[in-house]
Amino acid sequence: xSDPLQIKRLLRRPQFLAAAKGASEARGAVVIQRLERxxxxxxxxxxxxATKKIGGAVQRNRAKRxxxxxxxxxxxxxxxxxxxxxxxxxxxxxxxxxxxxxxxxKSTLTRLATPKAHKPSHARAPSGQDRQNP
Length: 134
Description:
Blueprint: E1 7-9, H1 13-20, E2 23-27, E3 30-36, E4 44-49, H2 57-78, E5 83-89, H3 98-113
Parallel strand pairs: 1-4, 4-5
Antiparallel strand pairs: 2-3, 3-5
Helix pairs in contact: 2-3
């Protein structure tokens, strides 16, 4: 039997700023940022934030409570150990139907867990003045 997933809260501003430098995905009513720490620790760091655009303190707290419950429900199956996650509430977080919010969180966590394939950049042709005429 495997050990239960260890979750530690992100509490300090530098932890949130570090997570902002990692990968980020937005779906529906939530934005999730993920930073792979690379420190060898298997725990998951978890933080929540809501800006004043969401509304007053009551609305922001409600949005964060909903995100905490959604994270509790989905992180065990879809979270990557050794990573820090920051859940950011968007405008519709407090009004979003619970099933749709869970779906947003699940799809975002799944998207962040799969490494993105490197897309080759299409090199643009140099401007006309740099080209040699045949």
